[in-house]
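Minutes, structural biology subgroup

Action item carried over from last meeting: produce the structure token record for HEBP1 protein (Polioptila caerulea). EB confirmed the sequence was re-checked against the source entry. Recorded below for completeness.
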Amino acid sequence: DMAEPIQQLTRNNNPQERQSIPFTLIQRKEKLGDLLYEKRQYGKAKWACIKMKEKQYEQSICLGFMKLMRYICEQNSSGLYLGITVPIVTIVHTNEAHSAMTQAVTVAYYLPEVLQDEPPHPFDSDIIIEEWPATIVYSR
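Output recorded by EB:
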């Protein structure tokens, strides 16, 4: 099921073709010279998002990522490979009291700059295009 998206990604796997999402570094946490995480602020932008709720957190992330890869690799209204932006963001959801994680996660792909004004529509109805306000993200 993922053979074509993986082949497309492999054909287009030049690191110089990956677009890093512009951000402002707010904080960097290291321990003994190793990076633990960065706190970043991303500007307002459009993202392709999918919310998944599998039995295991890891399953939700993997399935969400695979669905986004299909969108990136031609299963969109343009019929074209959209290009990779890094990082792919995973949002962990909590219960109403914010005391525990839920099974739901959102996996999100930043649309490249050239697609921000008119993003291609996904064929998968589970994927939605959202405009996010400036956002704080923890990255590791």
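Discussion: The helical segments are 3-11, 57-72.
Next step: EB to file the record with the rest of the batch.
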